[in-house]
Amino acid sequence: MWQRYDSHQIDKKRWDDCIEAACNSQVYGCSWYLDVVCPQWRAWVWEEDGEYQKVLPLTTGRKWGIPYLYQPYFTQQLGVFSRQPITATEVNSVLREATRPYWRVNYTVNTCNPPLDWPRAVWRTLPTYRLSLDQPYETLRAKYRKGHRSGVKQAARAGLSIQARPDAWQHMLYWFQHEKASVLQPRHYDTLRALYQQLCAQGCADLRAVYTPQGDFQAGALWVVYRHSVIYLFGVSSPAGRNNGSMTFLLDDCLRRYAGAGQPGRYFDFEGSQLPGIARFFRGFGAEEVPYFHLHIDRLAGVKNILGG
Q1: What is the spatial distance between Cα 84 and Cα 81, in angstroms, rounded to a whole number?
Q2: 256-277: pLDDT as tens digits
Q3: Where is the BioF2-like acetyltransferase domain (predicted)?
Q4: Is residue 281 part of a domain?
């Protein structure tokens, strides 16, 4: 049966074994990932035969004494992870129970957690974009849009090169802070730095950047390589890099390196976007839209209505 645990009660080894063995395994569910993005996370766990069989991480917060669930930055999907396929009925049953103590819920579940209607739950479908890597690079590239193939050629003609330089991370962070100054707060950059360090420690980080022959940074990207997925966690371009095909060049190189790598079921996840221009850019590589789901519950609204009445 399901049991509720605080973070300090969780056996992290058994937790990570479950995530790794899950049929819907995602790096976002690993204990070491959650420890960075939400140190106070809690969980519901189904234990059987001395192993965690199913787990549900809960990324919790508290404001003015009111408990809530939220989706941390750099964490696209959570929800129930299970060693065996799990039904929509069970997913929604445990979610309904697990979210009861929280006055406000903004939480996304993974692509294998289909939603069902239940009181107060408001579901929204979100897109991520995935590309199967079970095919040779030449087959993948043939599916690119013409503009993407031209962008790769443009970057090559300009003499741009892709490098894994030690200082690439700092170059990326500089331009990322410049680009997201109005969106992210200093604590979010602290989380990103800590997450990058943890990804490196776990052997999951793949960071590359594009430079001119003169050594000027043009674009960079961080991919998370975990089990059957290669996730495009974030990327950034300098103003010059936006105009010379650098990001297309960089993504093409990543697909070339991982395509047909002999791991059945491996896929590249662009992590999706609700911005039409970015979504169109991802689809230009031949990626297909895959839905995942956002759960919103606002019990405070009911209290406000009562007080207002």
Answers
A1: 9
A2: 999 986 678 899 999 978 788 8
A3: 142-270
A4: no
Measure the CA–CA gap between 108 and 127, rounded to whole angstroms: 12
- The string of pLDDT tens digits covering residues 185-235 is 888 899 999 999 999 999 999 999 999 999 999 999 999 999 999 999 999
Residue identified by tokens 């991370």 is 169
Distances (CA, A) of 295 to 22, 69, 105: 22, 10, 7
> Residue 95: phi, psi to the nearest 5?
-65, -40
172 touches 206 (CB < 8 A): no
Q: Are residues 256 and 212 in the same domain?
A: yes
C-alpha triplet 209, 215, 221: angle, nearest 5°: 10
Across-strand partners of 87? none
State which amino acid sits at residue 101: P
**Which is it for the CA torsion 303, 304, 307, 308, positive or negative?**
negative
Residue 122 inside a domain? The answer is yes
> CA 52 → CA 13, 17, 106, 140, distances in Å?
10, 8, 26, 38
Alpha-carbon distance of 181 to 177, in angstroms, equals: 5
